[in-house]
Amino acid sequence: MLPYNSMLSTLLEYPEHIERATKIDVPLPDKAENIVYAGMGGSGIAGIILQHMAKIPFFVNRDYSIPEFVSFSTLFIAVSYSGNTEETISAYKKARERNSKTVIITSGGELGKEKNAVIIPSGMQPRAAFPYLFFPLAISLAEYGYIKKFDIDAVLEAVKSMKMARDIAIDIANNLEGNVIIYGSGLLSAAATRWRQQLNENAKLHAFDFPVPECNHNEIESWEREDGNFTVIFLRSRKENERIRKRFEFMKKIYGEKAKVMEIFGNGEDEFSELIYLIYFGDLVSVYKAIYDEVEPEPVNLIARLKEELKR
Fold first, then answer.
1. pLDDT digits (tens, 9 = 90+) for 36-55
2. What's the rounded mean pLDDT across residues 209-230?
3. Are 68 and 224 in contact (CB under 8 A)?
4. Using alpha carbons only, how large is the chain's radius of gyration in Å?
């Protein structure tokens, strides 16, 4: 039996958190010509996903500065769970100076004091608050026609099916060796990024992610070498096209000669449901890995040390 862990406890309530999150309203302006999403780390992954779903130009901003095109016709979305992320605050202020249409998603802090802030539940690690950081905004963006619509019922059905796959997640966590490299294609490349972030932060593990097919034009050549200790994870869709399938099959053959290879297919009625399923799956794997390696997933000591250093 696994020991109690607050991060794991939160994850096991994932479907309930999604259902609560869908009831949060995010008022948005209409007639924006482009969207800039500013967010870092656990607060930024939603933007990476939404960029794949956008129907108008969509830029993910992960810096202190903002693109030159930001103007009064830009919908600028600042997302910081704590409300105190310095890069996001800096970018938000610059967007306000250019009279952008702005909205904030936060649980409090400095950004929470702004009149246009949508306040979400507090008391969680930002990376564990994904349902609240993502779904209220995604639902509103879809309603305004800024991103593709999605079926929330299909999403809930997919994540609830994870109960039958938890033993598989535990097994995968126990079999991760060396550096972990995660690959995904299209929308699922965002899931690969989330897996990498969660393994980094929860399991304190070196992990890297690459999108397919882009990595087939550069990263693939690194497998000519014989050295290294790697676990490769392919995040796949049962709806992927034939060209992507052939690429994965080739990679599985070549990479499998030099690394441990695992394939995980999404479960859901559509690609978006598969995405959320795989994100949930990866979150669980990262926490199970931390528990079995006797690593506490919640503290982020080096991030905290860096923030203290930056204050000097």
1. 999 999 999 999 999 999 99
2. 95
3. no
4. 19
Which residue of the set 113, 206, 246, 307 is catalytic? 307
Predicted confidence (pLDDT) at residue 4 exceeds the cutoff of 60 = no
Is the bond preceding residue 126 a cis peptide, omega within 30 degrees? Answer: no
Is the model's pLDDT at 292 over the cut of 80?
yes
The single residue of 23, 115, 217, 311 carrying the catalytic annotation is: 217
Q: Which token pair is 139?
A: 């639902």
CATH of domain 6-149: 3.40.50.10490
What digits encode the pLDDT tens for the residues 80-92?
999 999 999 999 9
| SS3 at position 204 | coil
308 is catalytic: no
Say if residues 89 and 80 touch (Cβ distance below 8 Å): yes
Same-fold call for 6-149 versus 153-292 = yes
**In the annotation, is 217 catalytic?**
yes
Domain covering 153-292 in this structure, CATH number: 3.40.50.10490
Q: What is the mean pLDDT of residues 97-117?
A: 98
The Cα 16–Cα 201 span in angstroms is: 23
The domain spans of the chain are 6-149, 153-292
d(CA 145, CA 16): 26
* Active-site annotation holder among 17, 87, 101, 201: 201
